[in-house]
Design goal:
The complex is a heterodimer of chains A (about 325) and B (about 260). Chain A is about 25% helix and about 30% strand. Chain A has eight helices and 17 strands. Chain A has helices spanning about 20-30, 45-55, 70-85, 95-110, 220-230, 240, 275-280, 310-320, and strands at about 5-10, 10-15, 15, 30-40, 60, 90-95, 115-125, 125-135, 140-145, 150-155, 170-175, 185-195, 205-210, 235, 265, 285-290, 300-305. Chain B is of the alpha/beta class. In chain B, helix 2 (about 70-80) packs across helix 5 (about 190-200) and helix 3 packs across helix 4. Chain B starts with 5 loop residues before the first strand and ends with a helix. Classes of the chains: A alpha/beta (about 325), B alpha/beta (about 260). Chains A and B meet through helix 3, helix 4, strand 7, strand 9 and strand 12 of A and helix 3, helix 4, strand 7, strand 9 and strand 12 of B.
Chain lengths: ~325, ~260
Amino acid sequence: MTRASIWVLAEVVDGTPITTSLELLTHARSLASTVEAVAWGAETAAAAATLGEYGATTVHDVGDLAGALPGVPVAAAIAALVEGGAAPDAILFPATYDGRDVAGRLSARLDLPVLTNVVGLDEEGDALSSTHAIFGGTHNVVARFTGSGPALFVVRAKSFAAEPSGGAPAAVVAAPAPDTGATNAARVVARHVEERSGPKLDEADVVVSGGRGLGEKDAYAMIEELAGLLHGAAGASRAIVDAGWVPYSHQVGQTGKTVKPTVYLACGISGATQHMVGMKNSKNIVAINKDQDAPIFSVADLGIVGDVHKVVPKLIEALKARA
Amino acid sequence: MHAMNVVVCVKQIPDPAAPPALDPGTHTLDRSGKLILDDSDAYGVEMALQLADAAGGGEVTLVSMAPNGEVSGLRTALAMGAAKAILVSDDALAGSDALSTAKVLAAAVRRAEPDLVLAATESTDGYTGTTPVQMAELLGMPSVTFAKKVEIADGTVKVERQTEAGYDEVTCPLPAVVTVTAGVVEPRYPSFKGIMAAKSKPVDTLTVADLGLDPSEVGATGSRQEITSVTEAEARQAGEIVTDEGDGAERIVQFLEQLKVI
């Protein structure tokens, strides 16, 4: 272990750090002797115990953002710490909406390159090397920085396991954002939570997803029914989210959730790269699709070449009969 | 009513339908062939046209960076209705990363003095998804990413921004950078008239020197990163693919039983 320090961007939702941030803290422990977190919002103190439990000794608290989007103020706060001499060897960001914003802003502010879509991070001599899945996950590239300064990595969810180290609560240290003027002018004026029943998509043991092959919006109801019968979560391909059939919160894929359930059931999904990246590491994959040449069959453990409108209702019937 | 000048950052990429290839030397994506407009950018172009229209005037300017003076993708967006384009093309840009690209785009966008800058949330070929925000920081502009709905009123952009749980309503004074998701609007198909008109629309082609950038800040040198290896990912073991003869559902039930999921 040749690195002194790694920082992890800890997104806190309802007083709890998101799982991806805990995954990053866990992995950072194996790469550096000191791991610290950066968080914002009114609930950092509440999250300090969990952040400590996963290895952070300190959490730099940017504080409440008064409705500002995190990108600008959080990046400015981190930049101020780095420029003030506290530079870590690397900073890890979860590949979330806000994580990407903070990483992009910080990269430009510090004039440091950033590597995104990281799925693996290893020691290679004195440096860190990052692994990235490309071409829909058929190939991996390994990259590294050649310059100096903190290495910035944006890491995809579920790239590492989250395991507590039993550490003491992290010390909360205020790290207020410097004034960034008009750049920091975007304000959240209202939040809308799209309610969904059952387990969370990225934590469910079974995920049933629907795609364009469903043909019409109303057919998605059978995906939800099937997911319910399997005590799982209902997901969707980007195609039907873009078409407005289901909310974005259901999207599995590159720009949506990354899932690794015990069973992933893809119904009427062809398997575009965008989608595969988000589900191909599921433990078992079942696919139903009319087109026998659909790429989804290349990752399926069980593939049914058939019509989702016939197979899924029968499956629902069979499961109901067992209940 | 105030005329809206909108810049849309568009990327011209290798046709995603063709098998992608890496340059054997640098391991970066081979962009030497014909390039087309990234599908993801059609949404930003459409949004820009609608916003300029709603404002009662203004121009939509495209900004793009591409090798070999490539304009085919720009012509597609011009045919949709954009007024003109700025293309930055220079051998010194080969191997540029997201930040280098952001530096180039920021310098080009500045020339157009926009009220609003639109971009896709990420490109289809590189999908780093950081370039628009890096560019916004370099321009000193606020940004709102992942917009699924965009409206302009009284010098302010109102956005419905996608979140993990649903969406946020965000307001932001102009000028600003907004990235739009696919599906934010339905892109129009270029008309025959539009395609003909696009051929004579101005494309201002610039070099790195024209933008006043130092070549060492961009391209492979400016990127300060390298790809050390490319390997085939471990393939999943081939599964069992069967044609549904009325027993498809039963097969799935058996499979789920084996896994003790049911």
